[in-house]
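User: What would this chain look like folded?
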Amino acid sequence: MRSLDEIFAEKFKKRNLEFNKKELATSALNYPAVKTFIAEHSEISQTVLTASLSNLYKFVQQKEHPDKIIAGYEPVLSFNKDLNLIEIRYTPTQNKRSKDSILSAKRRIELIDLPERLKDIDLNEIDQSPERKHVLNELAEFINDFSKNKQAKGLYLAGDFGVGKTYMLAGLANLIAKNGYKVAFLHVPSFIASLSRHIKSNSLQEELEHLSSVPVLIFDDIGAETLSDWSRDDVLGVIFQKRMDNVLPTFFSSNISMDALEEHFAETKSGIDELKAKRLMQRVSFLSKEVIVSGPNRRGIL
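Assistant: Here's the prediction, encoded as structure tokens.
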């Protein structure tokens, strides 16, 4: 596969640029970036300069009048000691590197039954209202712990509808992804409702393994789903158990407290089983710390 440098060089060569050596020497050698490059390479001789005038002139032209064919890249000078020639290399611009970094981070976040706009939330730009300050401090503390320990304990954000739990966890997910780690962020009610599709496509086991092992997992709106014994014990229970065994960071958002979630887990379509609910909640408590989120319903103004 040809390099970008070769592709760009070929495209410029096709333009059949004609050069006047005197013009080359005057315009190219006096250009600030060229003068700096030469000053930094004392090994470059007059013979090398003469042989490189065409490249130096192209460099100046591309710096002063960027061409569409190099959009997103900028020319830099490089001394090829083997050829005794100053060449042009092309490197991504700062703007392109920033955009590429953002795209890479977004690819590391898997949203399951949640809107793509959550990938655009910046944790540092979230409104630090008095009701949210302690929550954001908890998230910041996790980030600090996670940078040193990839088995840091997650959080269980409990609060009323619309106070920003999902929003803040999305900001957390984006920051984790920017730091190079994969995050799965799933809407629990929709996920539970879609289990039949996974069964039909024979992909359930693969999905459970994935959610059990992803570096950071976020359960959004847990407690709002309708459970059967099977979805509670063989789906959520399996994921919780494996993540607990491997001490993997796990987060939850819910409209109900941990105590209320235990009651929710106890009641399924087939009856009430408090013992299994208690066992499930032991795993949730191991994986996360409960944090109460208060404040007004901010849905639509976040």
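Residues 101-293 form a domain with the Rossmann fold fold (CATH 3.40.50.300). If you want, I can go into more detail on any region.
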